[in-house]
């Protein structure tokens, strides 16, 4: 899969932008704050329906405007498809595929991209929500219908939690709240599907993560990943990391855990069981990455997760490789990891790299370099060389 052309209107700091991209490596070079990451973000949004930097859409719309527009022409072999997205500051977004209106949730069926950015260190070092978000975005890319499952689960969770808060305020006991059973049924059905999909994802990522880690770090530190599940008695959100050994199907475990936590949920007005409380446990050398891994190991794990994701999508896709985006990554790596990373990504159909300093990017990836400045695409770097003072960060 290749993005041949990207057009933006009122997206982030771009009033208007046109960017032609080539197969193979492409490098966007510019000082920090000029807009190179915004171009990468726009492409990734089409594939993941979200930003890697903000949790809402409003910041994506240029100041003073009501909507932003992203248009990308993609090549799948000999086939061309044009994706158009209207991102509204308020209200629902709108999408078209080759001119025909579609639900925005359909876009990941046509666009696949994997983006790695410095923010991804939070996947391994941040709170459990960061790891859940990583997993769910990859689930949606693998199986787009999971976007609907996740949205329905979140909606059910909000309604159930609102009921618990109301019951708490009125001092109601479990036996008095029969309507909670209806929401329990919906929570179990949707949540079990999401839990099982996440567990399968971790299993499918195991070998690719180990291979990618070794490729980037040059060492085998036995990286592993597994889910710590609230339906098995753990609560990662409360710091309880060790899962209980109870067996049974996911729906059975879910219902049992809800029953065990019913009084606590009513006391606190919170839904304490479900995939919204789970955590993806990442380890190297048999120890949790969070709290034990070195800075270099943490970077290597985060990179390995994204590279393994790209490898998984590549193996399963009928539309070719996903677009691989490396946003301001090479400046954070030592020379050895830069070289290793360049070797790992060299054979992807299209790689998009952003950098403040072109020299930070290994030479094999610098074939197509474009200068970005002040929300404008200036063209090939050779035609617009950066001055020394323009490359200081």
Automatic annotation (TrEMBL):
Keywords: ATP-binding, Cytoplasm, DNA damage, DNA repair, DNA replication, DNA-binding, Nucleotide-binding, SOS response. It holds the Pfam family SMC_N. Gene3D superfamilies: P-loop containing nucleotide triphosphate hydrolases, RecF/RecN/SMC, N-terminal domain. It comes from the Bacteria. Residues 3-355 form the RecF/RecN/SMC N-terminal domain. PROSITE patterns: RECF_2. The keyword Cytoplasm applies. GO terms for molecular function: ATP binding; single-stranded DNA binding. GO terms for cellular component: cytoplasm. It is found in: Cytoplasm. ATP binds at residues 30-37. Its main location: cytoplasm. Belongs to the RecF family. The RecF protein is involved in DNA metabolism; it is required for DNA replication and normal SOS inducibility. RecF binds preferentially to single-stranded, linear DNA. It also seems to bind ATP. This is DNA replication and repair protein RecF. It comes from Microbacterium oryzae. The gene is recF.
């Amino acid at each position: 899969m290749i993005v041949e052309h990207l057009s933006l209107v009122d997206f982030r700091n771009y009033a208007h932008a046109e960017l032609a991209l080539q197969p193979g490596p492409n490098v966007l070079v510019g000082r920090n704050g000029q807009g190179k990451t915004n171009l990468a973000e726009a492409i990734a949004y089409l594939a993941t329906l979200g930003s890697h930097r903000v949790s809402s859409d409003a910041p994506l719309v240029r100041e003073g405007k009501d909507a932003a527009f992203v248009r990308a022409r993609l090549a799948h072999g000999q086939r061309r498809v044009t994706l158009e997205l209207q991102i509204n500051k308020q209200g629902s977004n709108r999408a078209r595929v080759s001119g025909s209106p579609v639900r925005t949730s359909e876009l990941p069926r046509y666009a696949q991209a994997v983006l790695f950015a410095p923010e991804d260190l939070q996947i391994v070092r941040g709170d459990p929500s960061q790891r859940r978000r990583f997993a769910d975005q990859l689930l949606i890319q693998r199986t787009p219908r999971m976007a609907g499952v996740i949205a329905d689960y979140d909606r059910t969770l909000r309604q159930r939690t609102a009921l618990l808060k109301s019951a708490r305020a009125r001092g109601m006991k479990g036996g008095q709240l029969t309507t909670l059973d209806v929401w329990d049924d919906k929570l179990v059905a949707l949540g079990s599907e999401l839990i099982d999909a996440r567990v399968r994802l971790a299993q499918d990522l195991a070998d690719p993560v180990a291979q990618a880690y070794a490729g980037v770090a040059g060492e085998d530190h036995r990286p592993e990943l597994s889910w710590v599940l609230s339906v098995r008695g753990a609560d990662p959100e409360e710091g309880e990391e060790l899962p209980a050994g109870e067996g049974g199907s996911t729906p059975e475990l879910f219902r049992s855990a809800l029953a065990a936590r019913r009084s606590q949920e009513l006391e606190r007005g919170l839904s304490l069981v479900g995939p919204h409380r789970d955590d993806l446990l990442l380890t190297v050398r048999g120890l949790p990455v969070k709290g034990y891994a070195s800075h270099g190991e943490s970077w290597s794990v985060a990179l390995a997760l994204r590279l393994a994701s790209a490898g998984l999508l590549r193996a399963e896709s009928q539309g070719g490789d996903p677009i691989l985006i490396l946003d301001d990554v090479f400046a954070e790596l030592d020379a050895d990891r830069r070289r290793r990373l360049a070797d790992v990504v060299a054979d992807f159909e299209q790689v998009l790299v952003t950098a403040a300093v072109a020299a930070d990017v290994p030479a094999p990836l610098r074939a197509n370099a474009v200068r970005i400045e002040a929300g404008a695409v200036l063209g090939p770097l050779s035609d617009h060389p950066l001055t020394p003072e323009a490359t200081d960060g």
